[in-house]
Structures are given as C-alpha cells and as structure tokens.
Amino acid sequence: MKTGRALILLLVLLAGGAASGLAAADKIQWHTYDSGMARSKFEKKKVFLHFYADWCTYCVEMERKTFKDPAVIASLNRNFIPIRVDSDREKQTASLYRVKGLPDTWFISESGEVIGHRPGYIPADQLMGILNVVVTGAAAK
Fold it and tell me: Are 107 and 53 in contact (CB under 8 A)?
C-alpha cells in the first residue's frame, strides 16, 4: 500500500514538473510552503523561502523589480524550489522562522537545514550574488 502511495506522489510531482516546464519562463514558479518543502526533499534541491505581505512596500518592490529580473527567475527556477509565504495568512509558518520584519528571505538545504537568512529588500544584482554563493557553496569574498 505504501508503494502505491509513493508511486502516486511521484507521478503527481513529475506531472507538476512537466507542467511547470511548459509554463512561461518569464516568471518564478512559486510553491506553497508544504508542497515546496516536500518537493525539495524529493528532488534534493535547496529551498528559497520568501516571506512577504501585500501591504509591505519593499515586498511589492521586490516583486516588481527583483523577481522580474530574467537572471533571478532563471536561477530560482533552475537551482531552487522557490516558496512564497504570506506572513499574514500563514502566521504559524512565519512564527516557525521567527519572522519579525518583511520581506524576509531564507535559504534551506536539501536536508531541511537552514543555510542562511537575509532580511529586507534585496536588489536583483545582490540576490544573484547570494544565489550563486548558496548554489556553489563557496564563501563570499
């Protein structure tokens, strides 16, 4: 019975991956917290975890600028499982990460361990530097 459920989960995840591959490459393929964390473990990919709120000026600015940058989009979709959490609607998840201000961005390893955390607005060029360090594991110079 467990094998059957695992097979169904695998098919659902693969179908989701195929569908996202067909989706426009001009936007980030955001996941919910629960599905993104499960997908991270299954695909053995790092997580880019972004907390935001609709009322947050810098969150809106990141959405409008940083998350529209083609290099950022490509890196997040290729190298990470991008997860977006509305801290007003998902207070329990925000509390788990002790989110105090917004935006708040976390990087989680494939095994679920916290790699790092960066509060505040991140311009596209700075985010690309951070993403490259997280992907390669190299220390920033």
Answer: no
